[in-house]
């Protein structure tokens, strides 16, 4: 991985000294409504220079208080989901092998599967915390099992029951709702109120890797930005009314990062072309800064 000229603000450490490694997956080939998330990672890098590196919430600065390397975007083959996922998995595995945290910027939500595949190989007892407007638990979408609408179902195929916790979900099919009711995943509809109890239950579990240098059960955090209400985040392809507010999501993030062993993370589904005002991209940049500073590294 080589240094990039186009970096997210404050993320200019070398790979060797970094604790967290950003990489983009500009992929939206299975998008079912309005495409354009492939432009999300680059838009965030360009617009990041409109924000400060210092966080008023955390009292920390990206330059002084953490070490992040931005490895740039992968060049992914559109139209070939498995090849794209393999490339994402390879990059995430390289980062994990160096005992660093991979931070994936999407792209559509399918890209999460590649990073989760890598994390699950290193951490067999991996758990997922998932924020989203959509359940993403379909067995297939229009006959395609590798669709953004199926990504958490494919993650369940890897991890099994009791390992996926979903928040803010407010859209899905009857079959997806039944999958939740059957106990395969834990889903809170419309809200995030049960997150503290879920976080505490995970914090009390003992990880299965005795040689793991980190503490606590390994958690992968995936955030589809459309979990936010469209009034705050209109720049996404499948808007759903009744979403979380930014400060709610930020509070959730800080709790997760404070209490849990986050070993991988992603933000997906920013579609900058759908919000000419630029406020969605600005929000995504600010939130990314808070995430990078909140991680326990």
- Please identify the top-level CATH class: Alpha Beta
User: How are the strands of the largest sheet arranged?
Assistant: 4-1-5-10-9-6-7-8
The CATH topology corresponds to: Arginase, Chain A
How many strands? Answer: 10
SS-based class: alpha/beta
Residue runs with pLDDT of under 50 for 5 or more positions: none
Q: What's the number of structural domains?
A: 1
* End-to-end gap: 21 Å
Alpha-carbon Rg, integer: 17 Å
Shape: globular
* Strand/helix succession: EHEEEHEHEHEHEHEHEH
CATH superfamily heading: Ureohydrolase domain
> What's the CATH architecture?
3-Layer(aba) Sandwich
User: What does the average pLDDT come to?
Assistant: 95
Beta-strand percent range:
15-25%
Number of helices: 8
The helix content, as a percent range, equals 25-40%
Protein model, in words:
The chain is an alpha/beta fold and 297 residues long. The chain has a single domain, classed as Arginase, Chain A (3-Layer(aba) Sandwich), CATH 3.40.800. It has 8 helices and 10 strands. The chain has helices at residues 40-47, 81-97, 112-122, 151-159, 174-181, 195-203, 246-259, 279-294, and strands at residues 20-25, 54-55, 60-61, 68-73, 101-106, 127-131, 164-169, 186-189, 218-224, 261-268. The strands form 2 sheets. The chain has an 8-stranded parallel sheet with strand order 4-1-5-10-9-6-7-8, with helices on both faces. The chain has a two-stranded antiparallel sheet with strand order 2-3. Strand 7, helix 5 (174-181) and strand 8 form a beta-alpha-beta unit. Helix 2 (81-97) packs across helix 3 (112-122) and helix 6 runs parallel beside helix 7. The longest helix is centred in the N-terminal third of the chain and has 17 residues, at 81-97. The protein is globular. The model has no long low-confidence stretch (mean pLDDT 95).
